Fold this sequence. Notes:
Structural class: alpha+beta
Shape: elongated
Number of helices: 15
Number of strands: 22
Radius of gyration: 38 Å
Amino acid sequence: MKKSVALKSVFILILLCAVLFASAVLFLGLNGKTANAESSVSYAFNDSSVEINVDENKILHVKESLQVGFVKSLSQISRSIPSTVYSYKNRGGKAVKGGKFLAEVKNVTAKVDGATAQVNVEKNSANYKLTVTNPDGGFAIWNSNETNRFYNLELEYDYDLSDDGAGKNAFAFTAIDYEPYWFYRNGDRNDIAKLTVTVNMPKPFDGALAKVYSENSDISESAGLEVNGNSLTYTVTFKDIDEKQLRIALDGDYFDTRVTYYPFYWLFVGLVIIIMIISITLTVIYRGRKPVAPVEVEPPVINPLHYSAYWHGYPQRRDVTTIILFWARLGCIKITKDGKKDLILTKLKPLPENSNFAERQYFNELFRYGNVFCSKDTRGFRNRVRKDRIRFAVDALVEESEKPTPFVPAVERTRMFVNILSVIAVTVMFAYFIMLNTDMISLCVIPLFIGIMLIPLVKLNPVFNGLNNLKQRDLARFLWITLGILAFALVPIGLFAWFMFYSVYLPQYDYIHMTVISLIWALFGFFILPEFIKKRTDEAQKLYGRMLGFKRFIQLADLPRMELLLKDNPDYFYDVLPYCMVMGLSKKIDNQMQYLGVAVPDWADGFNPANFAQELFYSVTHAIIVSRKKNLRNKYTYDG
């Protein structure tokens, strides 16, 4: 069955890789088509001009007067304007690049040869795309140099840069970020079309701090930058026009900038805060209280696996070994060490009548083929059936030991609810993020988003289906394996892509910070808070207090006190040994037994007296099969 689970896991991994590969191919294909379309020359520019009027809120009112000629049959012309812009800070008179922020294009109008034209605006994470349609139909194509036809395109819009709170003492903009072609006649490259830019600032500024840059090189002189009062003018060619940028470093609070919170921002933030408050409140209500723990010389005398359930909150599978010791102490079996790991169990008498069904089933399975059980007989392929039967019996024993749950009924539901709430907090912020970025960045975020959303799906499985039988437990384990594979693949891919594209696409806004905070909160709410949700029942609280008192006694009792106990009960150490093993006190017991000269009991042979408890626990754990085995549970029947 290990092969079956492995095959399922490999199949899921292959399917995941196929989906990611298909997404990557689609993504690259779309980008390839876009790149090919942009590289195909459709129109050219003659000398044009741009006038920009800037107000005190750093909102630019832009008027573009473009002379456009067409070399292909088109009815539309497109302009791209950046929707994410770098923030600049004024440091010693220099505009120093910082993070990114969102810019907004609004109030767009257009005319072609004086006639009002239809303009369509589309936004993605990188650009606003303005598409202007000729009201007279298609544009005339150049037939020869003598019959070239230019159209007067007038584009007017507001370019809102007021969100640049970090760079409010700096000013930067790109005149025209991308055009496919520049115009020259008869092969004369000196006649490349030019763009004249005029900027009218709202109040006086230091003209010496105004610079025009191309690929971070100062071209102010070659661009003919002139400052006249509150206005400046420069001229650049259309060749590589997207690299031309004006920067002005401004002193003081020149602009009255502000940060705009996008639609429903505070609603999403409020939801995350409410989720945090609910989770913390539930944790406080159902937190585990420290019990009264008086010093106890004797542990509570209960089934060792039930003791494990009350001590840990659930029975640990390794504590199945304490049942073997418990039976040996009752005189039902004898334990003989056979090598380093192997054991021989000899049946001396049946279990007491008060033993539960799961104990009897496990006991009968060990001695199904006679009164002697050798752990060597469970090894190898030929003995797989016997090995599976014993594992099944161990599972049934552990399940039976879970029934006296130490926690109040609402604890498990509260833990599950807090787990799910913690992931919903991330879901809320990712939902808001995806609402604002519905293009390429989604390819970065969606893998991370899907990987995180798988967590509540796995956690919800036991809520709806329960874990009342081994088949359901197998399903839960299979889901966890699947989650691990997907998380291993999806989450790192999403994180890597997110940080790779951060400087290109993601603006530094508070909702980004909230997304990171919600992600950290998810980890906190999923792994840390549930550890404090341990409100016990009244009976379990009393038992747990007695267990703590007994542990304190074993840890702190002096040798004279132990000698007195041994005089009253020579078998004291062997009576309490299973309970000490549950609490991890094997080494402490060994030290005390060695100092007091306690002999190895007659029901155990071949063990080192100096490390009896540790060696016994190690040997029984490795020899008596307690590991899990999947998908072979319900094939066998038992005769009880």
